[in-house]
Amino acid sequence: MSLLFQETNTTSSIDSDWHWGQLPPASPVLQSWLHEPGSLTRRLRQHCQQFHVKVLADGVLRPLMPAQAELLQAEQGYCREVLLCCDNIPWVYATSLYSPATQAALPALSGLGTKALGELMFEAPDLTRTPFELTGLTPTQYQQLAAHAGLAATEPATMPWARRSALSTGQASVLVTELFLPNSAPYQDLV
Questions:
Q1: Which helix (H) or strand (E) holds 166?
Q2: Per-residue model confidence as pLDDT tens digits over 60-77
Q3: Which residues have a Cβ under 8 Å from the Cβ of 110 and sit 6 or more positions away?
């Protein structure tokens, strides 16, 4: 069930305490996914018969952590949380954070529904992206995420990795975090 435009939530996004700046395993497959410069949605579609977006929350106004606030030039941001699924298996947990100013500059953000953010942002000819920051989750962080997102709580064979970067077009900037879940293609040579 999508939670559309709730009032301000006093807690930060679940990814706010992840430790960014880590170096991932040397797996070429994982590296290629973590550093994919184009639309992740497009790449996911190439690896499955059926792609869909499961909206967990949309438009929840949250306080931003200092690094998030610096990237978005705001103290609060709207948060959208989704699972990107390939053949009905969640492959990516993703969050999008954007300021009220970005919401005003790019109103389509509030009406995405089950459309992937990448399908909106990568249509813009002036799209830019900041360099990726990477992190691997601890077992505790993964268990918290699994409980939050309704995922299987079993400990995965390899701990999942995430990337984040800011996508900007015109006056709109969106901080996108994408966590590759344990059953997805990036880990095929790690297990």
A1: strand 161-169
A2: 888 888 888 888 888 999
A3: 5, 58, 59, 78, 103
Per the DSSP assignment, residues forming a β-bridge with 53 are 84
Category of 156 on φ-ψ map: left (φ > 0), alpha (ψ -120 to 50) or beta: beta
Residues in the chain, total: 191
- Report the C-alpha gap between 61 and 147 in whole angstroms: 21
Interval 50-61: pLDDT, tens: 999 999 998 888
Query: How does 167-179 read in b/e, with b if 16+ C-beta sit within 10 Å?
Result: bbbeebbbbbbbb
**Does residue 6 have a pLDDT over 50?**
no
Q: In b/e form, how buried is each residue of 81-107, taking b as 16+ CB within 10 angstroms?
A: bbbbbbeeebbbbbbbbbbeebbeebe
Q: What is the pTM of this model?
A: 0.89
d(CA 97, CA 122): 16
